[in-house]
Amino acid sequence: MDSNEKKQCKHKYIVGYSFRFPQPFFRSLPCDNCGCSIRLSLLWRIVYWCVDIIGFILAFGVSTSIHIKFLGSTFFISLFIFLLLIWTVHLIGRLILKYGKWIEVYKK
User: Fold this and answer.
1) CA quadruple 96, 23, 104, 32: dihedral, nearest 10
2) Tell me, what's the pLDDT at 3?
């Protein structure tokens, strides 16, 4: 593939399954269209990090402040709320990865 075809590629990385979901501080990922190495632009990376970190802290805070007893303990409800909120944060992360601006990583 020559450089003209790479410039015309609309880079994307689709997270269809949880095993394709990258870590919060990922360096680069392969493009689903052309296979070259891509990364999020700086603004989108900052938004991705903030959503991930603030979402985790918020989910922990909300889940520990729940005082609804189920089977004599608040553990099960707190765990359910925490997992529900983390799932929501991952859905937001998927949207960021889908609609964010991807740029090509140039190798030195």
Assistant:
1) -70
2) 54
Q: Span 5-23, mean pLDDT? A: 76
| Domain presence at residue 58 | yes
Q: Measuring CA to CA, which residue among 34, 13, 28, 40 is closest to residue 101?
A: 40
Does some domain include residue 64? Answer: yes
* 90: three-class secondary structure by DSSP: helix
| Domain tally, the chain | 1
Q: What is the pLDDT of residue 71?
A: 78
Contact 89, 57 (CB under 8 A): no
Structural domain of 47: 43-101
- Supply angle C-alpha 92, 102, 52, rounded to 5: 30
Write down the pTM of the prediction.
0.78
